[in-house]
Specification:
Number of domains: 1
Structural class: mainly alpha
Mean pLDDT: 92
Strand order of the largest sheet: 1-2
Strand content: 5-15%
Distance between the termini: 48 Å
């Protein structure tokens, strides 16, 4: 999730005293499972900030995707018309 924020230019810093690194959750121990690469448990306040940052990253991603529109030229429209008529 931090990578998703960073890739869209959303900065987020979390104080060390409000996060802790874990390799697995207690509920995963019985099945000998873990979090691939590890993860962080966040305070409620920082989890809220993370959710806001992710929403902002998603908004920026959608904004960027919507900002590029490619138009079809008259030449390309003619090619499409010929293809549709079976004359290409």
């Amino acid at each position: 999730d931090l990578a998703r924020c960073a890739s869209h230019g959303v900065a987020l810093s979390i104080p060390r005293n409000e996060a802790t690194f874990v390799r697995r959750l207690d509920s995963q121990q019985a099945l000998k499972r873990g979090i691939y690469g590890g993860g962080f448990l966040l305070s409620d306040r920082q989890a809220g900030r993370m959710e806001e940052a992710l929403r902002e990253a998603d908004r920026l991603k959608a904004e960027k995707a919507a900002s590029v529109t490619w138009a079809i030229s008259d030449r390309e429209r003619e090619i499409i018309a010929q293809l549709s008529a079976g004359q290409a």
